Amino acid sequence: MIPTMPFGKTGRDSTRIIFGAAALGSVSQDDADKTLEVLLDYGIDHFDVAAGYGKGEAEKRMAPWMKRCRIDIFLATKTGRWTYDEAKQQFHESLERMRVDRVDLIQLHGLVIPDQWEIALGSGGALEYLIEAKEEGLTRFIGVTGHGFTVADMHMKSLERYPFDSVLLPYNYLMMKDEAYAASFKKLVGMCRERGVAVQTIKSLARRPWNGEKTRTTWYELLENQADIERAVSWALSNPDVFVITSGDIHVLPKVLAAASKGLLRPSDDEMDGMIAEQDMELIFDGPTRIGFGDAPAR
Fold this sequence. Notes:
The chain is an alpha/beta fold. About 40% of the residues lie in helices and about 15% in strands. The protein contains ten helices and twelve strands. The strands form three sheets. An eight-stranded parallel β-barrel has the order 3-4-5-6-7-8-9-12, surrounded by five helices. A two-stranded antiparallel sheet has the order 1-2. The model is unreliable at about 285-299 (pLDDT under 50).
């Protein structure tokens, strides 16, 4: 089984592996249902989805599951809209697609661009609505997510504006070789530890940008060899302060769950550097602002 730990100060213990339901954005209901069985077999009790995954299809795939196991699942979704009215509309559409009357966590999705940050967290912004939704019992907690090399600094800025219950950002060995990102990430984690904020991480299996035909549903190429997956997952889980969200492909998911259930020791830096060389790994985020490849989904 997958170990659990407190999800920040929410009073909830969640499995340290969280299901990244972006993987459901382009699959059939039958495949989605088979995926649920795998998740339940491993005891995964925390699902993370977003309104934008598969243009809402991922949330639709989850609807039949909620009839069966909603009471046992910590359910999180996201809105990528920055104004009060737009966030309200999108959040209610999410509730309708999943056929639920509330979620446990609603997150501001991909909030890293300063202009958008000012809108979302300002007067008449999305956060204003999410606070209202919490007061109405439509969500219990509010979080913020993001991509790229600027995200840790932006999350710290967000936490100074509002006491979010969770943050979500990339974390893998290759990214942490960037000294500036590593310093910001560690500073953010320290802040979250002090304030009881849950730290969720993504991109643990990122290998490189796609080079040729895409064979998976992720927007970046994944590590797929079981030994490499075990190294990447055990490295991420060796940080006791973080949760790891699974990558957005149902076919790789069983390998991740198998790796996480083994309780493997943290691989050495030499092992990780060897994997980088052997797999020809590259950073998946780039550009002058180091934010990433467009409006990529958080998976």
